[in-house]
Amino acid sequence: MDVASFLQQCGIGITSGGFLGLIAVGYTLVYGTVGLIHFAHGDVVMLGGCLSLAILSFLVPVPVDPLTGCLVVVLAAACSGLFCGCLNICIDQFVYRPLRNAPPLSPLVSTIGVSFVLMNVGLIWIGPTDRAFPEIFLETTRSVGGFSIAMADLLVLVIVVPAVLCLYVLLRQTRFGRSLRSIAAITRVTARSGEAGKLVIATFFLSGFLGGVASVAAGVHATTINYQMGHQMGLYALTAAVLGGIGSVPGAIVGGLIVGLIRAISVAFLGPRWAIASVFLVLIIFLAFRPQGIFGKSKTRGGQR
Amino acid sequence: MTHRENTKVSEGAVLSPDIPLLSIDRLTVQSGGIPLIDELELDVSAGSSVAIIDSGRGSKAALLDAICGLRSASSGSVRLDGRRLKQGFSAKTFWGVLFTGILVGLLCAAAAVDIDRLWLAVVKRGLVVDEPFTPANFGRRLRSYFRAELAIDRLAGNWRIVTADGREVLAVRRDLSEARELRNQMQAAVTARRTGPGVVPDITDLVGDANEPQRELLLDETTLDRLAAGKRRIRFRGWSAFICGLFLGVGMSLAIWQRGRRSPEVAARAGVARTFRSPRNFPAMTVFENILVTVEQGIYRKSSAWWPHINKANCIERTEELIRSVGLIDQSFSFASDLTRYEQRCLGIARGLAMDPRILLIDEPADGMNTQQQHALAGILKDVCKGVLTLVVTSAGNDPVALICDRTVHLSPH
Amino acid sequence: MLALAPWFYPALAGGLGGQMTSVLIICIAALGLNVMVGFTGFLHLGIASFFGLGGLFLAILTVPMNPLEIGFLPAVFVSVGLTAAIGTLLGSPTLRLRGEYLAIVTLGFGEVVRVLFLNLENVTGGTQGLGPIPPPGSGIFVTGIDLGREFVVDSRWFYYLSLIALFVVVLLVRVLEKSALGRAWIAVREEPLAAATIGISATKVRLSAFTIAAAIAGLAGCLSVASIGTTGDPNAFGFNRSVAILCAVIIGGLGSIPGTLVGVTILFGFDIVVIPSVDSWMQRIQGQVFDVSLFTLGSWRLALVGIALIVVMRFRPIGLIPSRRFAAEFQESKQ
User: Fold this and answer.
1) Confidence check: pLDDT of B136 > 90
2) Could you give the ipTM of this predicted complex?
3) Residue B13: helix, strand or coil by DSSP?
4) Secondary structure (H, E, C), A176-189
5) CB of A303 less than 8 A from some CB of B
6) pTM greater than 0.80 (yes/no)
7) What confidence tens digit (pLDDT) does each residue in B356-383 have?
8) Mutating which of A186, A274, A297, A304 best tests the B interface, going by the most B Cβ atoms within 10 A?
9) Choosing among C122, C318, C323, which should be mutated to test the B contact, i.e. which has the most B CBs within 10 A?
């Protein structure tokens, strides 16, 4: 394998890592505020993909030029993001909120229940087979300086990079972002209403929004969606969130990039069958050396209680 | 920073001339940059009792945490019987690390030599050519795989000559003995090429015959070279993967061991027992079970066998004795979470005693108790522990419990 | 709480017997999971992989394609032993992690095993699996009847075999619960800090629970594979199966043996038995009334299971038959 194709493979890995990171941020945000692993997040993203498939099929029945294409995709991403955000809020309010004070593993079962329900909805919506994303651009690749970049990857970058930048601005500069970070740093939010409650709603919306945006990127990148895509991507994204240190947003993004890279490299060298195994092996080895993830906080050893 | 400690010895104390059981040497514990304990020096001899008094918050618990390993000190040391409370690098650790390394190495090597194909070559192919599965055959096939020799396979009635891993088909014949002979010739050529790169073996009758109905691959120079290099390739892969895996495994287990060195279990095994200010008993276990589990763990701790035998009757007897000594006999079978605060504290002390420890650290026993309860606790401690066990009691002020101790140490505030 | 529910099932032959057998087998696996999650309090998302490994080892050891072909009972022992060993190996580096990380690691291990199943085709048979697996007792003749043939012909035999195995496992878990080890497990779950200060090495205790859970799941896997006849589709041993068993355990009530059995029976019985029956009933009715089948229950299967999970957790978060301890803990945390 020569250097050029290796680099190209890395490029693919990083672009897929971008949207994996966005989904991972969704998991991390919810965990940081409510202390719950929101297993249904992957399926929410999948439904966002279904919606964006419908929108794109409607708006772009034939391939168009790059500019219109980008605009359409951004529009689809925004709609999908809104949809997923609202869906996430509904799930939280109807299913998770009554269980805030439940014994520790019970909300997990509800998450799984929601995941099954959403997966079934996806099954009914788009059927049991893969559905292809419409071709958006007339030209599929473009060569830049000797490398050929797929337009699909370029599109993914167009979606992912602004999303990450906006996220960064949101978390660092705004009041909402600051309170989110301070909550995550100190305690878990268990109150049902009031300021903390509003924060929880906002968190769920944000994680859903990012997931919806990521779903469009994922669909463009993989060119197909499937009703089980939620589980598969969710698994990678959750691994990424854990690798980066669950509860830490920059960790989730970095973890996503790393997971995407590992996946692409293992596909290149070992074949696509071993991708998930290599990702998990890397995770296990990494956690043996640094159990809190990349940016996670180490276990506090305080006797005070 | 000034030395924060001054010792005030109360009358009637007997200072034992032995080596101190617990020796704290220039201990500093910080919390977020603020030193809670600063360069503390303290010696506690066996059988004596010390009360540590400090009106401020946090330092007392921090001290006890540091002694029993729940919190790491920024500098200084704590020694029990002259030895630091850290898990040493014993022979058991060494073998464990080595074993893990070898295991991970084997796994990596198995992946590198493609265990799937190995299984095919060693187990399944024998069946195909109807060879009985004896250890000798097994060994032979294993060796030939690692020498990257050619083998005979069968597909749809034809006999094929393949590379050991089954990836490449070199020739096809209908008759088994003909295939065997051809294989031997090819293998001889490959072995000859392997021994000397410049050797040009006689391969004239291995080149394909135009009259043959099945066209076969020519055993030309490049193929020959590739086959000859097969043995070195597979051995290189196997060994390099094994060594990488070995290092990885050793590294991982050392990292994990390193993290667990100074943990509360180590201190507990050395004989340090501790109670907590807000009682940490096992809430959904009964009083009886709480103490029973501690007694059992005490026995595990003392015996060095891997799976020590526990005499159930003895344990139950000891548990009852302990419950009686703290006066909880009526609540033996209620859940620990149902007890009052005073009773929970008694339970905590009983659990501490159940460990059969060498030193008992009691964290603010008088906290939240009324005078009567404080006297009761003091009575319990005096009857059961004093003189027999080494005690370290922390307290916010001079309360009855602290007064039973031989010595008092004040941690002076900033 | 000797609430060993009386399993007086009438003798069932035919298809329903086969389904009941698989429910029983999953009960066994769920008990293993209960040891890990219920007693010791650690989330284990990959139990189905040990289930699959047990079946795989049994298949490798007994299938006629492989030269090893040893009898059923020794093969079961070896498989369970190997599965337990793998459990120990996986557990040792990972059990020091915090709860959530451990969950992901078990999840990952489950996926890795699934991928290994699929890809090591010569060892595991890939997507087709290894088979046919000779039934237990083949070659053993009792009063002139080949036991092995009996197993294949009448599904009741496997049913009774599974029932006996379940009984044994229930006894085993009960004995463990009351032993010193069981108390140590519960202590580590309730107050890991306090447990550490009395000298319980949390890692060793968790490791023992993990190994035992792996061994029990391996036993269930052996039985399952023997009753089906092949190892079958490796995707059946993946995350979905693990999660389903976990949900069954939690719904039934963590840490309680009768709860686990009830949970599995309800969840899997619902899925395997009730839905197809109701579906065929609905088909018939629709056929009579509308002359065409409009609404198939089968395609909403996932959603129904999901809704069932949500509803049960909403109204009885502690589980259907919670153990006394969990009820007490829940009360305590509510205050």
Assistant:
1) no
2) 0.79
3) coil
4) HHHHHHHHHHHCCC
5) yes
6) yes
7) 888 888 888 887 788 888 888 888 888 8
8) A304
9) C122
